[in-house]
Amino acid sequence: MNHALRIMTILLWVAASGYGANLDDALLQAAANGDAKVVKALITQKANVDARNEKGWTPLIFAAKSGHLECVKELLAAKANVKAKTLASSTAIMFAAESGHLDCIKTLVAAGGAVDEQSKEENTALISASQEGHLEIVKYLLTRGVDANCTIDTGHNALHLAAQKGHLEIAKLLLNADVDIDAKTSEGFTALMLAAGRNHVSVINLLIDNGAKINVRNVHGATALGRAVYERHREVVVTLLKRGANPNLGRTMESAREYSTPEILALLQKAGGK
Questions:
Q1: What pTM was estimated for this model as a whole?
Q2: Number of domains, the chain
Q3: Three-class secondary structure of residue 272 per DSSP
Q4: Confidence of residue 235 (pLDDT cuts 50, 70, 90)
Q5: What is the CATH number of the domain that holds 101?
Q6: Distances in Å between the alpha carbon of 89 and those of 25, 120, 171?
Q7: Looking at the domain assignment, is residue 55 inside a domain?
Q8: What digits encode the pLDDT tens for the residues 77-94?
């Protein structure tokens, strides 16, 4: 088969597989779909392995985000840029971390990918994995030496987001990595406040057992107890009162009267709330 006929045959096959005639666009779509055979065929026909869509996504980024390991390997073998970034400065490793694809992350790291990059919003692979509850990825990233105290543009670090989502085991890992347990977001929220607002009693106990300050206030004057009262989380209120929370700070008592339940108000009054 001569070269021209071979190209035509491959293009017809690619088109029959549901992809367009433009090689670069077809490669982006095939990588996103995890179609490794089409990816390989397009690469042999000199499709640009670093082609980009309107958001700056490359075939490698598409493949890594969806966990298409074979596509990732094909693209890396063809010298795709492992450090390529989207217009928002996100990398393939960041997307793989967010989506929970540890095998892809390890493959990208072996090819020279960095685990500590930050996007324009200052997001990192560790922060994404912590928020989404990907324990093994968090464990792996920490062994690679990433900074547990990095924050996004709102001041949230990995512990803030793990606590807010109730990811107990991830919170343990981050504490062992010397994350600042009392770090505050730009609005003054601590991990304890965020856990209290979402009714995560096990995380609350873990944080307090590790020295988290109970009675600190955010920029609105609210404490962890005040958050729990407002959200009507009875078990959290009971837990925090037992651990030394002061019911007379901020608007805790006012909030109890306006928004909470009679039972929670009574608990606060019994603990000295006025």
A1: 0.90
A2: 1
A3: coil
A4: very high
A5: 1.25.40.20
A6: 21, 6, 27
A7: yes
A8: 999 999 999 999 999 999
